[in-house]
């Protein structure tokens, strides 16, 4: 247990340092959300209708951007080999790294959501709904993205390929996240149904993600 | 002779090449005959009372859609062969099946789109079945990109195997999407509990076309596997020649024995 908590502490500390990539995700989120009104037009009613979708897309792209660093930085300085060869099961180590990545890069996105909701003219209920769905959905994005990050760790120009591999797997999370937000704001359907499926997707990714990532790392690094 | 013995024998690429060289002309002939029969029956099938003659796109659209999912299932089995049993031809099978599956998926989307224009009034609609098949197409393209991104074929095979297994989750989603989300694409009419609801005048040509398309896939797949094995042999020979140039003294004794036929291939 101490090995895993040490791994988590180390990853969070590195991510929060300069060049660590955690807060850059929030900046990218901010940039995407700010760009949308320039593209869509300043109509506040339209922005409020599109708000949950814009916030979800921004969070998805921001987490995709920071996923690149999940294994690449460790691979470059050789600590990934140490993690793979250690006595701790590689699946648990991958899960620990994904958890640390979510704490350092995913949580700041959720904390930034109320501020960005103001930019998009979202009211309290909408912002709360989007923040809650992001809280339930960003772990799924991180853990399924970890599969792509593990596949791409051994490629030279892995960045863009990582996005192509991860995005089809992230689409259900996006669909249900936005559906749950819309249901809480306006829709006739209940908030509970898509939100439950969103939580289920996260729970499934907690299991599938580490196993697939560990298998990819083992196959790709030998 | 047990099945496992046969599979072990087929693991030898030279044996596989010899066997497929004999089998391919027959498979191609059977495919051509079945396609001819299927197309003839499709042309003779009656017009639908509601859709008229455009219902006949179904005889091409539905087999393409079935094959697109079937090919991913074949790749999943091949990926298991790579990861679990390290079968030498499993990664050749997986790599050569990916572009064929992508082509079937693309044709399913295009023929469906052409069918949708007169039927639904739109070339595209973001309903559950169309969206999940589009995601399947994107996953095929991502898989092909992953194959091409890694230089060493066996390492590429293992990475692609993991991605194939993860992507297999999409297959039941596609199959049941029309039952879970009642949107635009019609629900299952053939493979459902309670038997097919399609009239026999349409069901028979559809099944003949499905079998014909399956034989088409097997023929194309075996031909593509042969090409992939030969491609790997060419690569191995090129690498041996390059190392002979770069280290002529060391390779002098090794070079001759390494170039014997059958060794170091695939």
Describe the structure in your own words.
The complex is a heterodimer of chains A (222) and B (266). Chain A has one domain. In chain A, helix 6 (90-119) packs across helix 9 and helix 8 (158-185) runs antiparallel to helix 9. Chain A starts with a helix and ends with a helix. Chain A has helices spanning 2-16, 22-40, 44-67, 69-77, 79-85, 90-119, 124-152, 158-185, 192-221. Chain A is mainly alpha-helical and 222 residues long. Chain B has one domain (23-184, 197-258). The relative contact order of chain B is 0.14. The model of chain B has no long low-confidence stretch (mean pLDDT 84). Chain B starts with a helix and ends in an 8-residue tail after the last helix. The interface between A and B is medium-sized, with 20 and 23 residues.
Oligomer: heterodimer
Q: What portion of residues of chain B is helical?
A: over 70%
State Rg of chain A. Answer: 18 Å
**Biggest beta sheet attributes of chain B:** none
* Estimated helix fraction of chain A: over 70%
User: Which structural class do you get from the secondary structure elements of chain B?
Assistant: mainly alpha
Spell out the helices and strands of chain B N to C.
HHHHHHHHH
Helices and strands of chain A, in order, run as: HHHHHHHHH
How far is the first residue's CA from the last residue's CA of chain B?
26 Å
Largest sheet of chain A: none
Q: Indicate the radius of gyration of chain B in whole angstroms.
A: 22 Å
Question: What's the shape of chain A?
Answer: globular
**Percentage of residues in strands of chain A:** under 5%
Q: Counting H and I runs of at least 4 residues, what is the number of helices of chain B?
A: 9
Q: How many domains comprise the coordinates of chain A? A: 1
Report the uncertain regions of chain B: none
